[in-house]
Each structure stands twice: as C-alpha cells, then as structure tokens.
Structure prediction request, 330 residues.
Amino acid sequence: MAVLVVGGAGYVGSHAVRQLLDRNEEVVVIDNLETGHIKAVPGECTFFQGDIRDTLFLEKVFESTPIEAVMHFAANSLVGESMKDPLKYYDNNVFGTLCLLKTMKSFGVDKLVFSSTAAVYGEPENIPIAETEITKPENPYGETKLAIEKLLRWCEQAYGIHFMILRYFNVAGAHPSGEIGEDHFPETHLIPIILEAACGKRDKLLIYGDDYHTPDGTCIRDYIHVVDLADAHILALEKLRKENISRIYNLGNGSGFSVREILDAAKEVTKREIAAEIAPRRPGDPAILQASSLKAKVELGWCPVYTSIHSIIESAWKWLQLFPEGYQDR
Ligand code: UDP
Prediction:
C-alpha cells in the first residue's frame, strides 16, 4: 500500500517524498502545481496533477492505488495574502481538506499526517512555546489551520481517522544534494531573501522593524531545517502505524535567531556583503516565536541534525547557487 503525499511538489512536501522513497515506501503524489514544481517530484513516485477540492479527481487517485496513509501539505501559506483574501484561504485550506477527509473516509483510510503552523498560537504568552500554549491565531492563514485541527478531532471521534498534527516554526534550508530546495513566487521568507541579496538577485534586505522588545530590536524566529522537518513526518507516520493514536507536535530548533543574527550568519556563510535597510514593521509579526520541541523529541524520538543556523543557511546557499533561477518549470 502507498503513502499519498498531498502537495508533494511543494517545498516541504517534496522533501518528505524524498525521505519516504529513501525508506523504500511506495509513494503517490498529488499536486495542483499552483505553487508546487513538477521538477521537484522524483520519477520513482506516481504523480497526479489535480486539485484536492475536486472530489472526483481524489476518488480516481484513491481508486488507482490502495492508500494506507496520507501526508497533507497542500495549502496556501502566505500570512499577508491571507489577510487580503481570506476566502481563498478558507476555500483551499479548509474546504480542500474537507474534500480530502471525505475521500479518506469513503475509502477507509484512517491515518493522516497534517502540516500545521506556529501561526495557530498568534502572539504567545509563554516562550518557548509548548503544545499546551493557548491557540489564538491573528491572521486567516493560522485560523484556517486551526479550523482544520479542530475538524480532525471530530473526524477522529466520529470516523476513527487518526492524525499527527505537526505545527511548523520557520522552515528553511534545502536537501543536502542541492537537487531540491525552496522556490516560491513571490518569495517572502527571510533566508531566501537574504541569499538573493547576497547573489545580486535583489538590491538589499528590508529589515521589518528594529524596535521590537528583543535584544537587538529585530524579530526572533525559530528556524528548522526542511530535512529535519521531513524526518519528523516519517517518525509521525511510524507512530500512527504502531499506536493508532492522535497527537500534536511543535517542530522547531528550540533556539531563536533575530533578523540581524540571520543576516550576520548569511554574510559569514556566503562571504559576501549583503546590503540591508530598516523598514517599517510588517503587520501581524510577533516579536518572538520560539518552539519547545521537547514533546516531539521524547515521544517521536526526533533528533534534528541541522541545528546550527550556519548549516541551515549553507544548504539554502548551495541550492541557490545550483539553481539561481529556481526550477524554471513555469
Ligand atoms: N523579515 C524581514 N525582511 C524580509 C522578510 C522577513 O525582516 O524581507 C522578517 C520578518 O519580519 C520576520 C522574520 O524575518 O520577523 C521571518 O519572516 P519570514 O517571512 O521568513 O517568516 P514568518 O516568521 O513570517 O513565518
């Protein structure tokens, strides 16, 4: 039986596909290629292009191969865009997941690993953030992910669909082979933006605010390497298989870095000058987001490898040098 990776052509999904194939799993990938890249999908897996809101399409996929478990990465994930167009986010993220769950139910598939986000916490009261922290999202993106989390609890109770909810902090880096990496359009994330400035693809980094209550005034985030994150998905799947239970895990490195610290580390890694300028705060940015991933370490046996910020930036830099224009598949 196969593992169905929904959104497997995207940044995190494609790294999870690699990890699954490395473990000799049979993998089926679905992606609508709106933000994903066909070149990120290895030839060893079966690929279906289509949208999860299309239930007939989903049924065809589930009929084609017996599916044992689903990893669900397909979502829109830009906070700013979600503020401007919340309906897009509720439609793709919430309604799309509803269609997926209906199909899982009708085909008797009862295991789901779900990509959630630290955005469900909003501005947290406690740092580091544990899974017990109160959830109060401050933007539609986080709100849609929390709505799905709640839906999953009811689906477990009613239909016995078990889930692993993984709440990601700031995902960064690229596969050590340099073959797959981060290619977003538009790019809004700090590390790829800094590296684009390092290689002349953009003039400078705009630092969104230097008047936060942090030691250097810039925001602090917890950066997790995409391969470590993909590993956590494999461990979560194994736990679902063994124990048939549902859990929520935070996934971050546990150490926070400010925007200025990331900029300095990027200068060291790239050995280039990187211009930066202070700009106004970006609406909705909390000052500090830092995870406690203790639960994932203890219960999943998760052991992140790329814990230094330099190693995370190095892998992203390698990808950018090998693919300066990204996948170029559009
Ligand atoms: N950031 C910045 N300039 C940029 C992009 C991001 O100063 O061009 C800051 C942003 O305000 C936040 C941190 O970098 O404090 C990480 O932002 P990113 O968009 O990568 O992730 P987020 O934390 O929003 O999920």
The chain has two domains: 2-172+223-251, 190-222+254-322.
